[in-house]
Amino acid sequence: MRMQAKTVLITGGGAGMGQAMARRFHGEGAAVAFLEIDPERLADTVGLLGGDRVLGIEGDVADPAAAERAVAETVAAFGSVDIVCNNAGILGEGLLAEMSLDIWQRVIDVDLTGVFLMCRAAIPQMLAQGRGVFVNTASSSAFVGGGGDAAYTAAKHGVVGLTRSIAVEYAKQGIRANALCPGPTATPMTAPVRGPEGGPYDDFIASIPAGRWAQPDEMARLALYLASDDADFVHGAAWCIDGGWTAF
């Protein structure tokens, strides 16, 4: 029960890693609020957690008003925002020269600007509390150029830089920030490249040291550690959890 008496706000909590984080934090005693753009997924996570000390908030992480509202509603319901897991993310589409400006902008808006908006909205509350933790989902693509489309890769590089900036600016005021950098994980976002009968990434997955896709709960366990008091001296770090992908 490491999260007892704490409140966590998770973006993209309706499926995949976000839902796994919601389950892990709730199971460890936290009050859980989450922002989710899809109303069906939102209802699914609320039902999964049972509704006790759970708040689902419908909204788009790329909308500044939604970020402010998510923090305000969480504080109104539970009295604090101790942890923010910025997990919402999307992929782009196609090679750079073929990518539309609309797709580029949407990926940057969700994957990078969305993290900025949530952090900006939560920091005043955390400063008033004298404490707070950000766990920002980046990617192993933050360290390589071939881990996804150009927009996704650029955004995830940006998340690591933003996370380190928050650590430098606010650590002495009680706020910690670290980046969670998953490798290939079996989530709805990666379903198109996995496929029920195998997918185009099969040879790549077989080539990494772990030789398999990660499961969302493996990411949630690391997020829980980074948010916990066990990680009190961990500031501005980018934690790869990628089955050894970036090791070779």
From TrEMBL:
GO molecular function per UniProt: oxidoreductase activity, acting on the CH-OH group of donors, NAD or NADP as acceptor
Record keywords, A-Z: Oxidoreductase
EC number: 1.1.1.385
Domain (Ketoreductase) ranges: 6-196
Record Gene3D superfamilies: NAD(P)-binding Rossmann-like Domain
CDD domains for this protein: SDR_c
Enzyme class name: oxidoreductase
Pfam families per UniProt: adh_short_C2 (PF13561)
InterPro entries: KR_dom, NAD(P)-bd_dom_sf, Sc_DH/Rdtase_CS, SDR_fam
Family assignment from sequence similarity: Belongs to the short-chain dehydrogenases/reductases (SDR) family.
Protein name (Swiss-Prot/TrEMBL): Dihydroanticapsin 7-dehydrogenase
Species assigned in the record: Capillimicrobium parvum
